[in-house]
Amino acid sequence: xxxxxxxxxxxxxxxxxxxxxxxxxxxxxxxxxxxxxxxxxxxxxxxxxxxxxxxxxxxxxxxxxxxxxxxxxxxxxxxxxxxxxxxxxxxxxxxxxxxxxxxxxxxxxxxxxxxxxxxxxxxxxxxxxxxxxxxxxxxxxxxxxxxxxxxxxxxxxxxxxxxxxxx
Length: 167
Known about the structure:
This protein is mainly alpha-helical. About 70% of the residues lie in helices and about 5% in strands. Strands 1-2 form a two-stranded antiparallel sheet. α1 (about 1-20) packs parallel to α5 (about 100-125), α1 (about 1-20) packs antiparallel against α6 and α4 packs antiparallel against α5 (about 100-125). The chain is elongated and about 60 Å long. The two termini are about 10 Å apart.
């Protein structure tokens, strides 16, 4: 859930660096944004530029907001399945079942979608930043911390029962 909350904070940070979006609406409607932002750079080849309208910002907000919503929902499903499995009334089978694999895949795909939303927002608002703001450096550090957290989780999972994970 920390990644989702961090994405929402990054969204608001970028918007604050650009200033009041309400005042910029008329100027932003003239801005054209390429959909070929990382991690979907391949869209640059097959798509045209889209205007940064209110609908664009709503879609970007939904791309970012889906991460914490999906994390919370799938986390609750996972905890419920684990609890049912340990109480003997398992609905989804063991926690290595196909359902748990699908949940893992959905969570893995959700993060790049939110990153894509942040990259689209940055490319739309980049020229409106007040002062010297290195937003992408901050975002790169954020992604590095999340990456290290994922590696740490993999190490704890690989270690199995040998290492107790608290928190």
